[in-house]
Design a protein that fits this description.
371 residues, alpha/beta, four-stranded mixed β-sheet, 15 helices, 45% helix, binds NADPH dihydro-nicotinamide-adenine-dinucleotide phosphate, binds magnesium ion
Length: 371
């Protein structure tokens, strides 16, 4: 049985992974668990799954401590050194997840990666670390998981472009004039997926798709000219590829993260998701509106610019989404803060993790001053 360490185990992705394991959908043994602040849930999950070790990165203690307990990011590093496992699922939300991705690769684990921020912020540096340690990075994001499947066994030169689908979020049809009055509750109400708060807001602004365009470029080695985005409100088509002969291949399924999560952790499990029923299926596609959702277009200019603009985009977005969730800025201001931060000079090529930390702090500082 494959031994797995789950980081971000109390979140949306972590919970979906554990639910699948609880329901015996995958042959996986949970050996380590990590959360940030939710000590009570972490302790209860450790007990239920018989984890050997747990870590709370906030540095707090959790009551009961049913397993070996580690604290803080230094504790996580030690836990990864001490545990014997085959793979790490990194489902930490946000930039902090990058530290955990690098630690996992350096400690010799394959990485099932939900934390797209790791790829967006570190880019080729992350893949260089994986190569150095001879470890694999397997995407968990549903679009990238679909593309990985579609590319299997295919000659790279026969693929013209990757086509990422996007639900369009809750404001797909809302007029731009009404964006001023958007509330946090409206922005959090995603039409098809149930996710954490940050990614839900990003799905409303299409910043999530922007991050995914950059993620796809790094994961699969395609430039922006060969990545397309199509709006597909039902979220049944998880993504597609266009081949040079003109055909388009797609992966379809009910919207459920169980499939991409477990496919990243195992080599083929059975009956992961409810079978698709074609008798009531009606699929709609449309082109993205880059005027109303400018953050999506920004991803393509970032890919052209290279340097560290992607990292700045992520940092500004985290700061602006945080401020929007706290009711400190409006939805249109959120967009402006990200645009204006990215406009600055981000030509510096990423050298190492310390450099990434410095650039991230710089971008956050700038975004905060714009709020
Ligand atoms: P959630 O907000 O639901 O969960 C976040 C998890 O990360 C929690 O376990 C939380 O712990 C932990 N965490 C938060 N901050 C830190 C930190 N500073 N250090 C360590 N752990 C931390 O997020 P999601 O599950 O929605 O998303 C997780 C990642 O997966 C994101 O990168 C997201 O973009 C990506 N993703 C999510 C999808 C989804 O369907 N939800 C789909 C595709 C990708 P605690 O609860 O203790 O605070
Ligand atoms: Mg996705």
């Amino acid at each position: 049985m494959k031994r797995v360490i789950i980081l971000g185990c109390t979140g949306s992705i972590g919970s979906t992974a554990l639910k699948a394991i609880r329901e015996n959908l995958a042959s996986l043994q949970v050996v380590g668990l990590c959360a940030h602040s939710n000590g009570a849930q972490l302790a209860s999950l450790a007990k239920e799954f018989g984890a050997e070790a747990i870590c709370l990165t906030s540095g707090e203690h959790c009551n009961g401590e049913p397993a070996r307990m580690y604290r803080g990011f230094s504790g996580l590093e030690q836990m990864l050194k001490d545990l014997d496992a085959d793979i790490v699922l990194n489902a930490i939300a946000g930039f902090e997840g990058l530290r955990a991705s690098l630690m996992s690769l350096r400690n010799g684990f394959d990485l099932a990666l939900a934390n797209k921020e790791s790829v967006v912020c570190a880019g080729s540096y992350l893949f260089a670390v994986a190569r150095e340690h001879k470890r694999r990075i397997i995407p968990v994001d549903s679009e990238h998981s679909a593309i990985l499947e579609l590319l299997k066994g295919r000659d790279r030169s026969s693929v013209e472009s990757l086509i990422l689908t996007a639900s369009g979020g809750p404001f797909r049809t809302l007029e731009r004039e009404r964006f001023d009055s958007i509330t946090v509750e409206q922005a959090l109400a995603h039409p098809t997926w149930k996710m954490g708060k940050k990614i839900s807001i990003d799905s409303a602004t299409l910043a999530n798709k922007a991050l995914e365009v950059i993620e796809a470029a790094h994961l699969f080695g395609f430039d922006g000219e060969h990545i397309e985005v199509v709006i597909h409100p039902q979220s049944i088509v998880h993504s597609m590829i266009r081949t040079t002969d003109g055909a388009v291949y797609a992966q379809l399924g009910n919207p459920d993260m169980t499939l991409p999560i477990i496919n990243a952790l195992t080599d083929g499990s059975k009956n992961l998701v409810r079978r698709l029923d074609f008798s009531h299926l009606s699929l709609h596609f449309e082109a993205p509106d880059y005027q109303r959702f400018p953050l999506l277009g920004l991803a393509f200019s970032i890919l052209e610019r290279k340097g560290s603009a992607a990292l700045a985009f992520n940092a500004a977005d985290e700061v602006a989404v945080g401020a929007f969730l706290e009711g400190r800025i409006s939805y249109p201001r959120l967009i402006e803060v990200v645009q204006k931060t990215v406009e600055h000079d981000w030509d510096a090529e990423i050298q190492d993790f310390q450099h990434i930390l410095a650039l991230d702090a710089q971008a956050r500082d700038l975004a905060r001053r714009l709020i």
